[in-house]
């Protein structure tokens, strides 16, 4: 039985970990709000009006790809492609190829950054493995001009960050929506987490300074996991109506 992602892949370890998956989307939420193609979100209106629901929908798609047999994973990727093509047809425009690459690059980068933030430093071979998985996803979607390897991706990632970001009205509105759906306390924590996750260029465009001891709190959270009392922190930090969706992230099994 062949799977899209090997059973022993670091990608599986990353995407079955609830904490890491939430960090991936926390970082992506900051960066994508700056993306020059963010207006596409406002065409459908789904993410701006309900960002948390869209988060869990995206996680479900991602985990279907990571943990499924290859045939089912490829069908899931094709479904994602069809959804985007439907949006393009409705708008009468084509989503820029660089915008697709931007999203793909975020998944690669924040998978690495999030894992290293709460677990350990990744080996170069593991980073290359992460790149390979998402590169194959991009190829299946028909994306053009994808880098050939991890080192080339590092260069292209920097170019994309320098050329494809801007802070505008959409950026401000998206962050307002994050605050609306999370509440003041959780929104504050989101911002602090984003500050230590995102690349420097993203930090400079959104934030001013970071004086809150976020890294100290992360260390305490790691201790709480060792003591198996981390459920208390999650009960405080996560909205009640999404607790089941959050719990399901860590229960995903191979299809």
Structural notes for this entry:
- The structure is a single chain.
- The mean pLDDT is 84.
- The protein has a domain at 10-95 and 166-249.
- The protein contains 15 helices and no strands.
- It is globular, with a radius of gyration of 18 Å.
- By secondary structure, the chain is mainly α.
- Helix content is 73%, strand content 0%.
Keyphrases for this structure?
255 residues; mainly alpha; 15 helices
Average residue-wise pLDDT:
84
Q: Give the SSE order as H and E letters.
A: HHHHHHHHHHHHHHH
Radius of gyration: 18 Å
> Could you tell me how far the N terminus lies from the C terminus, measured between alpha carbons in angstroms?
11 Å
Shape: globular
Query: In terms of quaternary structure, what is this?
Result: single chain
Would you identify the regions where 5 or more consecutive residues have pLDDT less than 50?
Answer: none
Helical content stands at: over 70%
Strand content: under 5%
The main β sheet shows up as: none
Helix-and-strand structural type: mainly alpha
Strand element count = 0
Work out the helix count: 15
């Amino acid at each position: 039985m062949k799977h899209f992602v090997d059973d022993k892949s670091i990608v599986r370890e990353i995407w079955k970990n609830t904490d890491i998956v939430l960090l991936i989307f926390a970082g992506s939420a900051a960066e994508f709000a700056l993306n020059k193609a963010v207006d596409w979100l406002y065409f459908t209106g789904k993410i701006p009006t309900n960002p948390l629901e869209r988060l869990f929908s995206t996680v479900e798609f991602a985990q279907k790809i990571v943990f499924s047999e290859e045939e089912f994973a490829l069908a899931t990727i094709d479904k994602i492609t069809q959804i985007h093509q439907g949006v393009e047809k409705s708008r009468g425009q084509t989503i820029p190829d660089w915008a697709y690459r931007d999203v793909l690059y975020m998944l690669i980068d924040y998978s690495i950054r999030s894992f290293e933030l709460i677990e350990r430093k990744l080996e170069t071979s593991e980073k290359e493995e992460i790149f390979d998985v998402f590169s194959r996803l991009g190829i299946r979607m028909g994306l053009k001009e994808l880098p050939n390897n991890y080192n080339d991706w590092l260069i292209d990632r920097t170019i994309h960050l320098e050329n494809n970001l801007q802070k505008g009205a959409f950026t401000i509105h998206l962050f307002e929506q994050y605050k609306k759906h999370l509440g003041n306390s959780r929104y504050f924590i989101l911002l602090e987490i984003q500050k230590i996750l995102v690349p420097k260029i993203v930090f400079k465009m959104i934030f001013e300074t970071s004086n809150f001891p976020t890294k100290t709190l992360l260390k305490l959270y790691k201790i709480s996991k060792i003591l198996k009392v981390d459920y208390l922190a999650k009960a405080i930090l996560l909205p009640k109506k999404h607790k089941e969706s959050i719990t399901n992230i860590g229960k995903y099994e191979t299809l």
